[in-house]
Design a protein that fits this description.
Layout: H1 2-13, H2 17-28, H3 44-60, H4 72-88, H5 95-124, H6 128-165
Helix pairs in contact: 1-4, 1-5, 1-6, 2-3, 2-4, 2-6, 4-5, 5-6
């Protein structure tokens, strides 16, 4: 459950980044979502749409007057994004559990990252450098986790192919 948790934590920082990264991974190399309710995430169009939402969120985050991520609406959006990302990156048969872990991670990540950002912004006397550092952490961290989830699924698929052909799959 490490992947859904990490995606959720990143979603606590930026709502749309984990769903966008997971969708891009699913569309480019697959996450085994065919035939599931999450198959829509295999679409390049879904990836484009969520990628645009993520880019917009990075811009809007720097604007004055944007509500705090720990406001109820922000938390709800983060929980949904964390659940979606966690379920999509789940091991077979664990989607519901992974969705719960992703949602919980997103809520926890929102509170922790909010407190850290406020503390660092006060210490520096400026919020913008902290916001850009947070952007970088969310982007790089999410990309790494989504890439790992995709590689893990490829290994599963190769193992399934070997088993169907009568070979043995490496553990």
């Amino acid at each position: 459950m490490c992947v859904p948790l990490l995606l959720g934590l990143a979603g606590g920082q930026r709502t749309f980044t984990p769903p966008a990264a997971i969708t891009i991974a699913a569309a480019s190399s697959g996450l085994g979502l065919e035939g599931t309710p999450l198959a829509l995430l295999n679409s390049r169009w879904t990836g484009l749409l969520l990628g645009a939402a993520a880019a917009g969120e990075y811009v809007m985050d720097k604007q004055p007057g944007i509500p705090a991520r720990i406001a109820p609406a922000g938390l709800a959006g983060r929980a949904v994004g964390g659940a979606l990302s966690g379920a999509a990156a789940a091991r077979p048969g664990k989607a519901w559990l992974a969705a719960g872990v992703g949602a919980a991670g997103a809520i926890a990540g929102a509170y922790v990252s909010y407190r850290v950002r406020m503390t660092l912004a006060r210490a520096l006397g400026r919020d913008r450098p902290v916001a850009f550092a947070e952007d970088a952490l969310a982007m790089v961290g999410t990309a790494l986790v989504a890439t790992y989830a995709s590689a893990r699924q490829k290994q599963r698929d190769q193992g399934d192919t070997l088993v169907r052909r009568g070979g043995t799959a490496a553990a």
